[in-house]
Amino acid sequence: MRTLEDIQEEYEFLEGDERYRLLIELGRELDDMPAALKTDATLVRGCSASVWVYPTEESGALHFLADSNAAITKGIVALVISAVQDKPAQTVAEMDVTAALEPFDLKNQLSSNRTQGVPNMIGLVKEHAARLASA
């Protein structure tokens, strides 16, 4: 998975539909999430499309599996996940993910339907990180 910095560098050179294509491409790059993990427990509430996020921990770092049933939403999920992927749980728990995503100006780039679940997704990611950090 690309780093958030790499994505931002590419994103800044793009406009309009090209940015949508980049988001769709990012969504395709997510690790496959097994259907068995797409449950009510991993479903992110408040998203206009179905979004699932499942945390794992590998060598002290958080690794998320995520998916969505909508291509652009899946790209937004990938963007959020790229901000926290493979970082220590404590780092993610303390991180301002919203600030990390500000350069992408998602609220002005995408419809409110596409971005309404982003705060809930960030909240879920940080909740998982805090739980794993305190374990």
Automatic annotation (TrEMBL):
Family matches, as Pfam families: SufE
Domain Fe-S metabolism associated: 15-127
Domain of life: Bacteria
InterPro entries: Fe-S_metab-assoc_dom
Family: Belongs to the SufE family.
PANTHER family registered for this protein in UniProt: SUFE-LIKE PROTEIN 2, CHLOROPLASTIC, SULFUR ACCEPTOR PROTEIN CSDE
Name assigned to this protein: SufE family protein
Originating species: Pontixanthobacter aestiaquae
